[in-house]
Amino acid sequence: MGLLNVFIAEVRMLLWELKRYLFNTGAMVVVMYVIFLGMFWGVKSIGGTGVSVSSLDSMVIGYVLWMSALFSLQGTGGVVQSESERGTLEQLYLSPCGAEVIFFFKSVTATLFNFLVITLMLYLTMITTGRVLSVDLLFFYPVLFISVLSLTGIGFMLGGIGLIHKRIGAVNGILSFGLIGLMLLPVYPLNGYSFIPFIAGAHTINEHIVHGTSFPAWWYLFVAGNSILYLCIGLWVFRLFERKALRRNKMGQY
Predict the structure, then answer these.
(1) For 114-128, how does the pLDDT look when each residue is reduced to its tens digit (9 = 90+)?
(2) What are the structural domain ranges in the chain?
(3) pTM recorded for the entire structure
(4) How far is the C-alpha of 72 from the C-alpha of 35, rounded, in Å?
(5) C-beta pairs of 79-85 under 8 Å, 24+ apart in sequence
(6) Quick check: 186 pLDDT over 60?
(7) 175 contacts 73 by C-beta, under 8 angstroms
């Protein structure tokens, strides 16, 4: 019941913040939508008839996947920086369930909300561009959720670094935009690129929706195992930095 109460509290907190900062939430969706339209019509205008239909479809799905990765990657690191700026980071460590659990549920609730935003963006872009894709949400959501767990692990690593160095926005920005190039790497059949976090899951979703590609069961187990591995490593790294921050009395500083 303790963990359930933490989850419910984080959901209520998220809903309150969305309501309190409604303009910022709406502006975020509008800006992301406008950026995508600029990219889509720019590529289509420059490429002309040389741009294939499958390339445009991949661009639609790829942008949606990149946004989901962006939100997940900035999860724990963003929370640590935000709580440090507010001066409430130490208060989280007074919770009986532990700050690590709170950070995890903050990431989970943010991911679930991001799925709603991503779904809205997906259908808006399909309607606007005329590229209507058959998206099986029962396939899309589970594979996406499993895939972003790896980025949650990376987020915990960044959060641990943030406990010591406080400002990590530059690192977040570099990693976020670096994902765009990484998502183009060939990850199937299994090779070295397949072990990069999130990329294998993103490739699976893109190929399944755009080309109708089927993958064997072992591939989905690999995607899940890869994500869980990064999540565990991220938690381990976070705990190392957390202990270091506590020894140096960094929690109350910014």
Answers:
(1) 888 878 877 777 777
(2) 2-247
(3) 0.81
(4) 19
(5) 79/103, 79/106, 79/107, 79/159, 80/158, 80/159, 80/162, 80/163, 81/162, 81/166, 81/167, 81/168, 81/169, 84/162, 84/166, 84/254, 85/254
(6) yes
(7) yes
